[in-house]
Amino acid sequence: MKRLSTGVHLPVWILLGLVVFLQPVGQVAADTKLDLLLDPSGFLSGAMHAWTDDFTLGQLQNQAYGYLFPQGLFFLLTDALPDWVAQRLWWWIVLGVGFSGFYLVLSKLHIGLMPLRVIAALLYALSPRTQTTLTTISSEPWPAMVAPWICLPLLASRVTSRQIALSLIPVAALGAVNATATLAALVPAALILAYRQRWLHGIAWSLGVLAINSWWIGPLLVLGRYAPPFTEFIESAAVTTNWLNPVEILRGTTSWSTSGSNTAAAAVSADCTSHHETP
Questions:
Q1: CB atoms within 10 A of CB 53
Q2: Is the peptide bond between 70 and the residue preceding it cis, with omega within 30 degrees of 0?
């Protein structure tokens, strides 16, 4: 059974890759920050500053620093590739990481047989929430895909400092594009430590989480200090949650950001928008 389980990940990753690369060839989607895909070095250099004068008369950037890692680093390393290929590779990693992490958690807990674990892990990676956000704002499903990896070391029969350290490694990969999504991905691991009554380990883990995320918590406080409360106008409860109902919550179709995707996020030809071309 162990030999069979180790052979699960590769074929499923290949399947997920086929699904991703079968999307319109040569086109890129307006995923999260389109300029991060088209000009990663320029975007990341600008993200090092709170202020930018690239838009209108200048403005404070909304959590641009959150793209520095891992999403920004990924697109910087793949900058030599065609833009649509780099984007598909990123989507592929998002789905694959979610599948493998959830499958390993199920295996660690001895839940179900191998075929059922594969189905459950695919349902997790390809949930309605993921499918409705992957191509429009992939930075949001990414923390949920990393969450199982944070939990996995804490499910060991004996939790030691080694397990705490192994749990904190994927914490560093959560990114900080959406602080709420990042914090939500930490909740399952915290609940595991609380359920197992590992209070001292929980304190150590929490301190590690704070230390690892300090690189974006500081800039977030600066943004909150000087920026106007713009979320009250663009992400009010009336827009984001007023339309929800129990059925939509159970279906996982709670993402409000894709409501206008049909008209506002049309695919852009990579041949026309590639930053390698000089206008």
A1: 10
A2: yes
Q: Which two tokens stand for residue 42?
A: 């320029």
**Distance between CA 250 and CA 163 in Å, rounded?**
33
Tokens representing 81 are: 């590739």
Task: Using CA atoms of 100, 106, 112, 117 in order, give the dihedral in degrees to the nearest 10.
Answer: -20
Tokens read off for 181: 């999504």
Task: Name the residue type at position 260.
Answer: G
pTM: 0.84
**Residue 251 CB contacts under 8 Å (≥ 6 apart), including other chains:** 128
Q: Is 70 exceeded by the pLDDT of residue 2? A: no
Coil/strand/helix, residue 104: helix
Buried-exposed string 187-203: b where 16+ CB fall within 10 A, e elsewhere: eebbebbeeeebeebbe
* Residue pLDDT, tens place only, 246-276: 777 777 677 665 554 444 444 444 444 444 4
Q: Distance between CA 239 and CA 255 in Å, rounded?
A: 11
